[in-house]
């Protein structure tokens, strides 16, 4: 049991779970990727915090398909920025800050990707009216983004902290038992 808990305390496992969840059917934009990038920034070493979530995103895109280079760069860029929010969160973890970071990530993703759709796409005219139409059309997706980011942020951060505490509790119990036997 102790070995299993220790392995589950590896944050990379949570990132891989998030990438896998992206492949199962879900409501549009109700996905774990924003939470995965936030979690990666908060818990993974700086070497892997951005690279692993982007790699997981790329691998899942191989199965789901790519929708154009500018779209992918905009989406990946948004997730890199969300990972940087996670870097800040690393030293400022609290319930309120995690919720605020999740909401900020959702807003950042919404603004970044929809600006990209308007600026680089062919659907909306490059006018103020086209800009507004692009963002208004994306509002239903934004609701799902916020809901998904909050849900998965709770699952990843809460799940990880729970497993971490269980592993630490189990270690303390084993240490106490060893002291009692040897004491």
Q: In summary, what is this structure?
A:
This protein has a single domain, classed as Arp2/3 complex 21 kDa subunit ARPC3 (Orthogonal Bundle). It is built from nine helices and no strands.
Describe what you observe in this structure.
With about 180 residues, this protein is an all-alpha fold. It has a single domain (about 1-180), classed as Arp2/3 complex 21 kDa subunit ARPC3, CATH 1.10.1760. The chain has helices at about 1-10, 10-25, 35-45, 45-50, 50-65, 70-90, 95-120, 130-135, 140-180. The longest helix is centred in the C-terminal third of the chain and has 44 residues, at about 140-180. The protein is elongated. The mean pLDDT is about 85.
How is the topology of this model organized?
Layout lengths: L1 H7 L2 H13 L9 H11 L2 H4 L1 H14 L4 H22 L4 H26 L7 H10 L1 H44 L1
Helix pairs in contact: 1-9, 2-3, 2-5, 3-5, 3-6, 3-9, 6-7, 7-8, 7-9
List keywords for this structure.
mainly alpha, 183 residues, single chain, Arp2/3 complex 21 kDa subunit ARPC3
